[in-house]
């Protein structure tokens, strides 16, 4: 971090966060070049608040009460070591809060949650060219040698 850390509270998303989350998730999808509809966001928001769904969501709340970031994550089973891990699907910080340590705090919160639940690893991926995010991620984790493949069905 660069000494201008924003103090945020990392907590599970609540119903009151819907509008802020919706706007940020829409911006996140646009940044990634993914088409996202209101119906799709409704479905994801439903997963976040469904105790039987996998998707969890932490939001970063500023000391003024504004939601300035979110991360979606979930557990997954790891057959080879016979353990569970955490996978971060999405992470986004509002432009006004970038460069102030919010991502660092969200990664730490997911790591703490994983540890509390006995999950032994937290993984995520990003674009090879997402240099700004990668410079943050490099402070927290080791870049793996694994190559990601995608089969669309």
Summarize the structure.
The chain is of the alpha+beta class and 153 residues long.
Protein model, in words:
The chain has helices spanning 18-31, 38-48, 102-116, 131-140; strands at residues 8-12, 56-62, 67-78, 83-93, 122-124. The protein contains four helices and five strands, in the order βααβββαβα. A five-stranded mixed beta sheet has the order 1-2-3-4-5, with helices on both faces. Strand 2 (56-62) and strand 3 (67-78) form a beta hairpin. It is α+β, with helices and mostly antiparallel strands and 153 residues long.
Principal-axes geometry comes out as globular
The ordered string of helix (H) and strand (E) elements is: EHHEEEHEH
Helicity level, as a percent range? 25-40%
According to DSSP, the number of beta strands is: 5
Mean pLDDT: 94
Low-confidence stretches: none
Q: For the terminal residues, how far apart are their CA atoms?
A: 41 Å
User: How big a fraction of the residues is strand?
Assistant: 15-25%
Give the oligomeric state: single chain
Which class do the helix and strand fractions yield?
alpha+beta
Number of H/I helices: 4
Q: What is the alpha-carbon Rg in Å? A: 15 Å
Strand order across the largest sheet: 1-2-3-4-5
Largest sheet geometry: 5 strands, mixed
Compile the SSE list and pairings.
Blueprint: E1 8-12, H1 18-31, H2 38-48, E2 56-62, E3 67-78, E4 83-93, H3 102-116, E5 122-124, H4 131-140
Parallel strand pairs: 4-5
Antiparallel strand pairs: 1-2, 2-3, 3-4
